[in-house]
Design a protein that fits this description.
Blueprint: H1 8-22, H2 26-43, H3 47-60, H4 65-77, H5 81-94, H6 99-111, H7 115-128, H8 133-145, H9 149-162, H10 167-179, H11 183-196, H12 201-213, H13 217-230, H14 235-247, H15 251-264, H16 269-281, H17 285-298, H18 303-318
Helix pairs in contact: 1-2, 2-3, 2-4, 3-4, 4-5, 4-6, 5-6, 6-7, 6-8, 7-8, 8-9, 9-10, 10-11, 11-12, 12-13, 12-14, 13-14, 14-15, 15-16, 16-17, 17-18
């Protein structure tokens, strides 16, 4: 959500000047003071107090559009998106040319899963502010959710043309390209994202996933390992590196990564399934059976888990 704190000092000066020249009431000065308190609370992440302060502002000055915007932002930070949308809508009733009002309402609508409405708001934001790269990116994300990948990629590209130094723009375009199956172009975008933000573990992880899809397991393992250097608790990176080791038939290493996953998250059923298969291939039949049972206990409806356990138990009977 976009805050309006950058306008605060200017607004204060304007209010004081208006008071001196035009006789603006003390009531309006007090509204501005409550607004300033609200912004201070917001910046310190005291969202409940910020909401109280912005509400006091609005009691004193009912057409204070920025107070509605920032109270909406506070509601959004608390995850109360319906209330945020009401406040953004009120701000836009007061000032229909308020681009940030459309943008912030679009973000709240996206969190509510109302992507078509969000696209409409981002489009209105862009009509008012056509050089807003964030609105292009946010509209692109909503378009992806609607399955409109070509349009999303165009929006990400527009965002990049406006601001070519934002790693997230390349990352999100890479995601959309990967969904289209354009793996080489997606890898190029992930690589650019990594150049701009080399400490983001997710960028390495997602590029690793594409290397796996191309059966380039060594490159995938290298990317997952970089992700784990940045975030040693990155469960998905251990899991997918295990799958890459599996692809190389280096089963002991795969088992080691799967075990690390289960140390962090012992309810990751797919990991038990994959480790069971790896145990079976290394001749550890009883360990394989134990893992297959755990996978099925966590997800009793999975047909693959059922078939694997039946197969392993049959193998055990035949060896008796």
């Amino acid at each position: 959500m976009r805050n309006q704190i950058s306008f605060l000092t200017v607004f204060t000066l304007i209010m004081l000047m208006c008071h001196a020249v035009y006789g603006i009431s003390q009531k309006d000065i007090s509204a501005e003071e409550w607004y300033r308190k609200g912004m201070s609370y917001f910046e310190s992440k005291q969202y409940e107090k910020a909401i109280e302060a912005f509400s006091k502002t609005l009691e004193l000055s009912v057409r204070f559009a920025r107070a509605y915007i920032n109270r909406g932002n506070a509601w959004s930070r608390k995850g109360e998106y319906d209330r945020a949308i009401i406040d953004y809508t009120k701000a836009l009733e007061i000032n229909p040319q308020f681009a940030d009002g459309y943008y912030n309402r679009g973000i709240a609508l996206s969190y509510k899963g109302k992507y078509a409405l969000a696209v409409q708001d981002f489009t209105k934001s862009l009509q008012l502010n056509p050089n807003d790269a964030e609105s292009y990116q946010s509209r692109g994300i909503a378009l992806v959710k609607l399955g409109k990948l070509d349009l999303a990629i165009k929006d990400y590209t527009m965002a990049i043309e406006i601001d070519g130094q934002n790693a997230d723009f390349y990352y999100n375009r890479g995601n959309a390209l990967a969904m289209q199956g354009n793996l080489d172009a997606a890898i190029e975008d992930y690589t650019k994202a990594i150049e701009l933000d080399p400490e983001n573990a997710i960028f390495y992880h997602n590029r690793g996933n594409l290397w796996v899809r191309k059966s380039e397991y060594d490159k995938a393992i290298a990317d997952y390992s970089e992700a784990l250097k940045i975030n040693p608790k990155f469960v998905e990176a251990y899991y997918n590196r295990g799958r890459a080791w599996d692809g190389k038939n280096e089963l002991d290493r795969a088992i080691s990564d799967y075990t690390q996953v289960l140390t962090i998250n012992p309810r990751f059923d797919e990991t038990y399934f994959n480790r069971a298969r790896a145990f079976y291939q290394t001749g550890a039949l009883q360990k394989a059976i134990a893992d297959a049972r755990k996978a099925l206990a966590l997800n009793p409806e999975d047909k693959d888990y059922q078939r694997l356990l039946e197969f392993l138990e049959k193998q055990a009977k035949e060896k008796r």
